[in-house]
Amino acid sequence: ARAAEVLAEQRAAGWVAERIEWKFPEGHAIGGLALRGKIDRVERHAATGRVRVLDFKTADRPVSPRAAHCRRAARADERAPEFARFEIGGEALVWTDLQLPLYAAALQKRGQSISSVAYFALPKSIQDTAILQWEGFDAELIEAAHQCAAEAVQRIRSGQFWPPAERSPNASFDEILLHDPMHSVQPPLASLQLPVY
Questions:
Q1: What would the mean pLDDT of 166-190 be, rounded to a whole number?
Q2: Which residue from 65, 14, 20 is spatially nearest to 42, judged by alpha carbons?
Q3: 37, 72, 109, 159: which has the fewest C-beta neighbours closer than 10 Å?
Q4: Are 69 and 98 in contact (CB under 8 A)?
């Protein structure tokens, strides 16, 4: 019910749904790799014509799109691969997700100028249900994300998977693997003989 209220408020403010669950067009690719996805909602402002991409997010607590997609480069010995690092406005950042910028890039490829991207946050707490804009989102961010994705594709194609991530954002197996996957399991013995039945 609260989500419906927020949508009604946005509609009153001029935002009209143009596409819902829009699949990327065939042939959209990065570095020769087909990119597939489905954008939850593409809206156009009735008065200004501005286009906004909305992605619905359920979570215990709302997270801003910027915080979900990038973080500050923590230190000089940052382990993130070089291609995941970028700088905007003098701030050194690292990509942690590329979803919304790549959505914007897909729409740009179809000739649409994206003025903003946002999360429609649907957290546990009803009063926190809201549209969370990515403040400062622009063409420079879209290009930085596209370059990161293109390099990731090139490395995957060439079999380069190093360096490993410092810590997986979904590291639910850390405790099971004693926080050290490489030394948590004993390699199989060369002389191990399996019974044949």
A1: 59
A2: 20
A3: 159
A4: yes
Cβ atoms of 93 and 85 closer than 8 Å: yes
User: Based on C-alpha coordinates, what's the Rg of the chain?
Assistant: 21
Compute the distance between CA of residue 135 and CA of residue 138 in angstroms, rounded to an integer. 9
pLDDT tens digits, one per residue of 83-109: 999 998 889 999 999 999 999 998 988
Cα angle 44, 48, 54 (rounded to 5 degrees) comes to 30
Name the residue type at position 150. A
* pTM reported for the whole predicted model: 0.78
The predicted pLDDT at position 197 comes to 47
> What DSSP string describes 58-76?
EESS---HHHHHEEE--ST
Q: At what angle do helices 139-157 and 99-109 cross, to 10 degrees?
A: 100
Tokens read off for 155: 């490395």
The Cα–Cα gap between 194 and 96 comes to: 43
**Total number of residues shown for the chain:** 197
Q: Please tell me what DSSP assigns to residue 123.
A: E
How far apart CA 101 and CA 86 sit, in angstroms, is 14
